[in-house]
What we know:
Blueprint: E1 6-11, H1 19-29, E2 36-42, H2 44-54, E3 60-62, E4 73-77, H3 93-111, E5 117-120, H4 125-130, H5 138-146, E6 155-159, E7 162-166, H6 173-179, H7 182-198, E8 205-209, H8 224-227, H9 229-238, E9 242-247, H10 273-282
Parallel strand pairs: 1-2, 1-5, 2-4, 3-4, 8-9
Antiparallel strand pairs: 6-7
Helix pairs in contact: 1-2, 1-10, 3-5, 7-9
Amino acid sequence: MSERFKTIAVTIGDPNGIGPEIAVKAAAELLGSRQVRVVLVGDEHVLRRYAEGSAGGAELKYFADRSPSNDAILLHPVEALPPAHFRPGEIEAAAGRATVRYVEAALALVRDGHADAIVGCPHNETSVKAAGIPFSGYPGLIARLTGTPEDKVFMMLVGGGLRILHATLHERIHRALARLKPELIEAAGRACAATLKQLGVAKPRIGIFGINPHAGEHGLFGDDDDHITTPAVERLRMAGILVEGPVGAGVLFSSVGHGSAFDIAGHNKGDPAAVLRTLRLVGNIPADAPAPTPATAP
């Protein structure tokens, strides 16, 4: 296996949702790729069900870090969901617990040097909470599992030519506003610049959105930006980051493909397009790259 390969661990999300189906379909689509190696992380009995029904019976092989093979769907099995609780289309606490177990296993692969990145398929917050696990999305979960302060982990939305990083996420408005300090904005800006470089943007250029309409309009709509975002922008510039702002946030926001789609789970109707776009993004595969051809054994 060439060193230029990037190994991406794909967690299957809620096993009773659409996650495992689109994960299998995306992995099958990239068989034979010379740029990325996809490793599915989840229950083997769930993945074999979808490999047979949604990927034309594609072969599954256990993942070995130094294996040169890229002609089969690679599996890193995690025994987390009892077969009796594999019920596509239903909310199950056991499925929510399994969702978290998959992420833990994928993080271990990255921590041990066996994977370079993680792509998470759709989770279901109700299922996770039913398992008694505090959960408001992947960023907070990643922070807790890695022992990282939650104000150092951010979510970036990528789509339609936009890359938007959130300083706050999934919390009541008054709490989010209370947390907005120059230090948080600066940390978000640094994380944004570092992530953009990882995604192939050699010289990131960042715009900081204002808190108030028109970033306060010189006090007409409040002076919060004078005390919070403007100082953060100055600190980022001093750190050598190309940044502009604060500017008004009157722009169109985009969102990632998400949702566990219980209404079609288990019916072979899932569209893996969003997962494929993410894998190509993380793997730095150009949008116009030709489709890979299956690898052949020597």
